[in-house]
Amino acid sequence: MQVEIWSDVVCPWCYIGKRRFEAALADFEHRDEVEITWHSFELDRHAPTERLGSYAEMLGRKYGMGPTQADAALDNMTEAAARMGLEFHFDRVRPGNTLDAHRLLHLAQDRGVQGEMKERLLRAYFTEGEAISDRAVLTRMAADVGIDADDVAAMFDGDGYTDEVRADEAAAEELQISGVPFFVIDRRYAVSGAQPPEAFTRAFERAWADRVSPPTPAREGTTN
């Protein structure tokens, strides 16, 4: 069973959604037959290398929130993350452009460690306060999952994997994906957002049932 996930590495609900997805997958009987691919989705392609100001201020500007509302939203996300075993430290977060991080995720896919790379980047950003738009930081994060620094340097020396990032984003447009996280199962079923584990479980079971007993096509001149 193929699961494709569009997300960004600076999206808090993407990290929470990842944990909820993983909780459902852990209980899925056929989890060993599920193949996961992470696709690129930049929330802001035009973001600078690093934004100045606090995360609360950035959130307020983006969604038209006052300071009280922004702080409440951060508290809500921090609590939701904690319920899934995650530590969010928005006071440490350093927002910035994510193109290079997505390029690195494609390199990691070719090295067979894309899932590990995705987790490392999310933890670096939301828990550790790393500037994941910084190529030196990205190189260090890649080493943590076993990717050679020379391979990362070669990628950054050119435009390696940029076309793959853009292809992911073009596919998102074709599928009318306007927000992340977005989960697509066998290109038949979708789960939008950081849904509870039960929503993923239902989607898994339905998709698996279709693989075992595909729906019978309607005969010509009839309707289902």
Describe this entry's structure for a reader:
There is one protein chain. The chain has 224 residues and is α+β, with helices and mostly antiparallel strands. It has a single domain (2-212), classed as Glutaredoxin (3-Layer(aba) Sandwich), CATH 3.40.30.10. It contains nine helices and four strands; from the N terminus they run βαβαααααααββα. A four-stranded mixed β-sheet has the order 2-1-3-4, with helices on both faces. α1 (12-26) crosses α9 and α2 crosses α3 (67-83).
Produce the secondary structure layout.
Blueprint: E1 2-7, H1 12-26, E2 35-40, H2 55-63, H3 67-83, H4 99-110, H5 114-126, H6 135-144, H7 149-157, H8 162-174, E3 182-185, E4 189-192, H9 197-212
Parallel strand pairs: 1-2
Antiparallel strand pairs: 1-3, 3-4
Helix pairs in contact: 1-9, 2-3, 4-5, 5-6, 6-7
Helix content: 40-55%
Question: Order of strands side by side in the largest beta sheet?
Answer: 2-1-3-4
Counting helices, strands and paired strands, the structural category is: alpha+beta
Shape: globular
Query: What pattern of helices and strands is seen along the backbone?
Result: EHEHHHHHHHEEH
CATH homology superfamily name: Glutaredoxin
Radius of gyration computed on alpha carbons? 19 Å
Number of helices: 9
What is the average per-residue confidence, as pLDDT, rounded to a whole number?
Answer: 94
Architecture per CATH nomenclature, i.e. the level-2 architecture: 3-Layer(aba) Sandwich
Task: Tell me the total number of β-strands.
Answer: 4
Low-confidence blocks of residues: 217-224
Regarding quaternary structure, how should these chains be classified? single chain
Domain tally:
1
What fraction of the residues are assigned to beta strands by DSSP?
5-15%
The CATH class, by name, is Alpha Beta
Distance, first to last CA: 25 Å
CATH fold-type name: Glutaredoxin
